[in-house]
């Protein structure tokens, strides 16, 4: 089973996790961290779409009074620090998020149960 939060064909995770009333991307990045924690500790192979690990911003090109609308730019360029581009739109890369993803990958590698364990349903429903 492949565990994927987003890809270049759908709205990017950071965009989807941004809610009206948020202060910049602070809350969305916290939501992304929680989603990544679930992704790396649940069954299946976690797949990180290029850019999520550095909290790439993929803002909508159209906005209304209620905030961004429509399909955002789902294929933003990676904001490499040594390349030309506009880091004010897509980046700059969030090194704290990158360290968090690195730690999750290390934990997954360290504990075999996160790679080869099984899921047992203990209780479902009301009965």
The largest beta-sheet arranges its strands as 1-2
- The tally of helices reads 5
Total strands: the figure is 4
Integer count of domains: 1
Largest sheet: 2 strands, parallel
Distance between the termini: 29 Å
Beta-strand residue percentage: 5-15%
Structural class: alpha+beta
Question: What does the radius of gyration come to?
Answer: 17 Å
Shape: globular
Give the overall pLDDT as a whole number: 82
State the low-pLDDT regions, or none. none
What is the percent of helical residues?
A: 25-40%
Helix-strand sequence? EHHEEEHHH
How would you sum up this structure, described in words?
With 127 residues, the protein is α+β, with helices and mostly antiparallel strands. The protein has one domain. Helix content is 35%, strand content 13%. It has 5 helices and 4 strands. The strands form 2 sheets. Strands 1-2 form a two-stranded parallel ribbon. A hairpin with a 2-residue loop joins strand 3 and strand 4. Helix 2 runs parallel beside helix 4. It is globular. The two termini are 29 Å apart. The mean pLDDT is 82.
Condensed summary:
The chain has 127 residues and is α+β, with helices and mostly antiparallel strands. It has helices spanning 13-16, 26-41, 87-90, 95-110, 113-116; strands at residues 2-4, 45-47, 60-64, 67-72.
